[in-house]
Structure prediction request, 265 residues.
Amino acid sequence: MQAEYIQLSYLQMGLASALILANGLISLFLGLKLGRSIIWASIRTIVQLLLVGLVLRQVFQVRNVYLVLALMGVMTVLAGFAAVRRTEHRYPGIWLNTFLSVWASSWVITLLALVAIVRVDPWYLPQYAIPLLGMVLGNSLTGVSLGLERLGDEMSRGRDKIEMILALGGSSWEAANRPIANAVRTGMIPTFNAMAVVGIVSLPGMMTGQLLAGVEPVDAVKYQVVIMFLIAAGTGIGIVLAALLTYRSMFSSKHQFRYDTLRSR
Prediction:
């Protein structure tokens, strides 16, 4: 027997929103001075999600490929912007490099999922295209920002070692491959940690939503497995692209380290 879907009212949303007061009390009790941040974050959550809900309702009804692509484009630009905003070390070209990394990795993986794995017809069906891209983007931007931050930190702290390798005749790749490897590893850690405990410690958002909507548990699991692997692939590709583009920007064709272009925010 399929469970009945329970539609939430705005009153029920308000009751759930009141739970955020617990965070405010913790901040007040420990003197964290996070009250204003908690209030602002809560307001942004409500407003942003309500606006997205209204937009998606219209997009789902229209099912226009250009409208779907436009919305996906906006999502991608904002994801690239958010990824850079989270980094401390920056260099000229980081905005373009990050956007290209996030865009290429997330769109390729999402298109592969829509066309070859889930086989949505038409492929731009917004009920599938937008949520799939959103989940891949959200995790990719986190991985890319962590990877870029680690890479920038290692290049800044390890300047002497990098320049020593170059001075001894090493190539720019020999000088940078260890920081790049560490950056990619750092960016992938959250995804691998999530994969290690999924289903045992935590039930992911998509699977939980499907279960609440009455979908058969096994069907929900199938979708979640696909999503986890899409996220892992998209995150990995995004981090590698971002790291390689950063490497290309930080070293000249003559194997010179452009340390002077690296700035801390």
User: Anything to note?
Assistant: The mean pLDDT is 89. The chain has two domains: 1-62, 65-264.
